[in-house]
Amino acid sequence: MQSKLTFGVIVGNRDFFPDALITEGRQDILEVLAESNITPIILDEDATKLGAVETWQDAKKCADLFKKHRDEIDGILVILPNFGDEKGIAETIKLSGLDVPILVQAYPDDLNQMIPSRRRDAFCGKISACNNLYQYGYKYSVTQLHTVHPKSESFKADLRQFMGVCRVVKGLRNARLGAIGARPNAFNTTRYSEKLLQSVGMSVQTIDLTDIFGPARKLADDDGRVRERIDRIMSYVKTDGVPSPSLLKMAKIGVVIDDWMQKLDITASAIQCWDSLQANYGVNVCTLMSMMSEQLLPSACEVDVTGVVSMYALQLASNTPSALVDWNNNYADDPNKCVLFHCGNWAKSFFPEDDFEMGYAPILGSTLGDENTYGIVQGRTPSGPFSYARITTDDRNGVMKAYVGDGMFVDDPMETFGSRALVEVPELQGLLRYIVKNGFEHHAAMNASHSAAILAEAFETYFGWETYHHNA
Length: 472
Fold this sequence. Notes:
Blueprint: E1 5-11, H1 19-35, E2 38-41, H2 56-68, E3 75-80, H3 86-96, E4 102-106, H4 122-136, E5 141-142, H5 153-173, E6 176-180, H6 194-198, E7 203-207, H7 210-218, H8 224-236, H9 244-263, E8 268-271, H10 276-280, H11 286-294, E9 299-300, H12 305-318, E10 322-331, E11 334-342, E12 357-360, H13 362-368, E13 374-380, E14 384-394, E15 399-410, E16 419-424, H14 428-437, E17 443-447, H15 452-462, E18 466-469
Parallel strand pairs: 1-2, 1-3, 3-4, 4-5, 6-7, 6-8, 8-9, 13-16, 15-18
Antiparallel strand pairs: 10-11, 10-17, 11-16, 12-13, 14-15, 14-17, 15-16
Helix pairs in contact: 2-3, 3-4, 5-12, 5-15, 7-9, 8-9
């Protein structure tokens, strides 16, 4: 996961306003970016007047600088210490050729300093700058408050959100998705369009399960990578009561899947876990999927490719692991609570250390034999923040669409098995009505964060997807 972002910074200027405002604004934003571990690409102070952008010549210099760092720049930050030059900003972006998210900030005026030497007029200038970005066809984000000081907590929150937006946009545009096995015949709900995904930069690489089973069976029991994988599994999760042959099968198939993913630079994977793996190989791979998700290589069940895209989007927004869940059960007669469930492939981060263990899948085991379904991880997610998201390809209309929202994990009493969580979502019944009326899948992605606003901005503004932000 990318831990440090790089932003191209444009400091707008208009010559009628005092130079001191530009110098102060430049220093303010550099300090804030340093605090946030963001690398700035910004004109030197002597490259143009005070290192700001105003004229056509300034725009060319700034654009040339951005071009030199085009492979590094994740977003553009426009700072307006005063009114700014609307054309200079738009022309810089045009000449740079960059297609990245843009955040526009404008300084507030101080009522006690509405004098020629301190007056900014950035309140008005921001409207003009955004008008030009709109005319030029650029997509851009704005701060929550129309004018806001860079050192305020409000702007720092805006910046954190924008960082998440940049990660989501860049990550999804370059995602390489692995589809391991055919979609289970019983799961029409996980059908999707590879072509719609490709239209926004996401490519799907496929492999048949036989091409996984064959090499796995050829691996010797004492192969060094197999033994190392068994050790990793046993150090990751409690395996008391799990038969050794099941651990051996898991280790072998894990080595083969890893080799395939590394060879093709797979970002995220979706596996046909129901029920060919159990019937033809004799094990569940939930633990392997859990380990991948924990390592920020998200993995989803039932070849739900758009489900793992949803997981990946939440992961990019929060920099923490995601999981695929079923909207599974009502919680007694409480209309705003429900049970999230899956057999057991959620990342370890979702569970307390003392409530996380490997077992078998009793539902699958009832027809395939318990001995063929070892490999799930089970436990319950404790109380805390909760975000959910679902991206889908709406093939009937030829578009991609999504829903997002925030809620809370809660600790109310609940006795069941598998990977499970109880959540509370305000006006949950309205959300569920939206899901079923608009043809969304029974799967959703979840994350232990509040990241819905980041995804809504990324999906709507930069991908142009119809996005329902519940309770926004």
